[in-house]
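Narrative progress, year one. The postdoctoral researcher (J.K.) led the effort to move from monomer predictions toward full complexes, under supervision of the PI. The following entry was the first complex the group processed end to end, covering 836 residues in total.
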Amino acid sequence: MDTMSLLMQGFAVALTPESIMFAVIGAILGTLIGALPGLGPANGVAILIPLAFSLGLSPTSSLILLTSVYAGAMYGGRISSILLNIPGDEPAMMTCLDGYPMALKGKAAEALAISAIASFIGSFIATIGLVILAPILAKFALKFGPSEYFALFALAFATLGGITGKNQFKTLMAAAIGLMIATVGIDISTGVQRFTYNTLELFEGVDFIIAIVGLFAISELLFFLERHAGDGLKQVAINKLKLSPKDIVKVLPASFRGAVLGFVAGVLPGAGASLGSFISYTLEKRVSDKGEFGKGDPRGVAAPEAGNNGAASGALVPMLTLGVPGSGTTAVLLAMLISLNISPGPMLFQQNADLVWGVIAAMFVGNLVLLLLNIPMVGIFVKLLSIPPKYLMPVVTLIASVGIYSVSHSALDLYFMVGFGVLGYIFRKVDIPLVPIILGMLLGPEMEKSLRHALVLSDGDWGVLFNSGLSIGLWIVAILGLVLPVIVGPIIRAKMKKSKDTVKDV
Amino acid sequence: MLNTISLKSVLITGAAALTIAGQAYAYEPARSAECIAPANPGGGWDFTCRSVGKVLVDQEYFKGNVQTVNMSGAGGGVAFAHTVSKRDKDDNLIVAASTATTTRLAQGQFPGMNSDQVKWVGTLGADYGIIAVGKDSKYTSLTQVIEALKKDPGAVKFAGGSASGGWDHLKVLMTAQKAHVEKLPKIRYLAFSGGSEALVQVVGGHVDAFTGDISEVKGFMDSGDLRVLAVLSEERLPAPFDTIPTAMEQGIDSVAPNWRGFYVPGNASADSYDWWVNTMNELYTTQEWKDIMTKNGLMPFHKSGAEFTQFVKNQTLDIKILSQDIGLIK
């Protein structure tokens, strides 16, 4: 009841012309970025954060813009999966399996439409889940003391490699690099400066936003340069849409199941969208006894799309209520919130109710916008796919530089950004994942702080870390999260690869 | 109490006198001015710049606008260094400051810099310190907390939103010192990245007591989750905070206003400095500013010109001595 009235207030924020405008802009830019092969939602949000800064947007508008970008990128990811058989990012990989065969069969338009509807259902249901779960979790969060937080952060790091992490060792390395960067600056528990060498600019540590924009956006630029800014990619032609209500009804159950599974996967810290789309697809294959999975079954498009969009909204739950991101993109959003002096956690729902509920309501609005954009206007996005990157990348670089400079008016920040860009380029070359670096930077100081607080409160007794049911439960999940991927991960990845190879043979 | 009132009336009369004299100033403000907020958007300094900038334009002190420039870093140190080294003669620049600025200056956290390098214009209000506990706490007054600390300085653990040695930490130490608690360095303080994080830990029952500012606690006070034991002000605050006893009422002579104000570059012309002082005095009396204060929980606290400069000097010295006493700095 209370939630309903708060949500209605949220709609009052989300339905102002300004909010709608940012939702529409975010949806369009997000879809575009998601559609470009290789550019996922984390990059998308990272590229557009500086835009929010340079426009001097209010926190609410910034967050509406960026969550719309996030949702849009999840929608857009399917376009290149279906038309090019190149997933925009990892979660979109499962969509290739049945989407591309459908396109080859001359049903590209249907595949795009079905996936748009499934994406809508996924996001919609998961946003409802967010509305129900977030306030409950926010109240529950009061039970989290320093030792519980420490266990939770340990969990986030443990599940970091996740099921889709390519190389556990490199993930570990990346997280360690992030933690190392995070030690620079004042140590708030003692007030001592660490690794700052009397450089004032380093006193507050290395800014996450600069690291994110450098690592993701600038390294992307370097990659494009390397590819000599090639031409657009070859794609399957699009036919005229012939979709009967019956076809839509047929994929509804798959979409609903995918949405719920995706949401659950998204809520778990670290698991994220890839897991959501993967589980949804495999389950759908098992539940539907007959069907032509892998050869262009519409349900095989609907389930993973609903799953990855569901997971996207699900990942916002731990980010908003506990300040622990459930995925790479939410980590980027979290960094953005912190930069705007908004601390996530239970207080967010008290102090910034307008912002939280406004953003949640905006997600409903943005989702509707995306559905409307993606069915009739899908042709336009497809055309955009063929824009040569030589026009696109300079714009990205310009936005990034202006945005970063406007945050602190310091040229040093720009050098840092470029430095991180080069670093990001090298890391990606040697397959070191970037997201764990960001998580390390974001969560490292928090984890250190929690540990020290727990020990101060217990007067130095380490047993405090395991003294509540909640923390023991979190430790168990953390250990499972660490061990399971090592055992199950290779099996699942092999399966994913196998299914994809089959598609290529078609 | 009488003291404060007479002080205020003196200032207002002074302000009025200056207004008349103001016409004769050699300094004419440019079309636009700049206000540096030494932090990212959304914090206290950013608020100070933006709200004062808006009033300055609304009241037609500037025909153009007062541009807020965010320059974060080193808790204000980057902006301070920038002002001293690059903008030393700029007449059209003001920089937002607060107790956090004087605390860092006092503790030498802006290496090679001190409070004499800039000119202190004035304050436009303050956020008073408070000490609070969760609703289930066994403590019902500040006196009880102090008694517990006297027996064992580690008995009550405090959570606050500033780093160790920062203003929230110092408020506890100042109060304990005034109440003659021994072994101050043994008092446990848990540093959080913001007041709200610390508050949640106290309300959740994980930490004993909260040290922060009055503006941070309204939500949890209204919901009944938090019991504010004392406000560190000279007299009781206006409603709805008038039910909170002051520390002084409880026999502890501890006052901790977190003021919001400005400094200008050290070599800005004397005329422009006078103009800014005068303008801040006038601004403080406008209805528009009073409304902003009420809306944002700022309490009356106004000092300007020479008086403010002396105040900054004293505060810096007090904090320095206290920090040395408790071993935070050498």
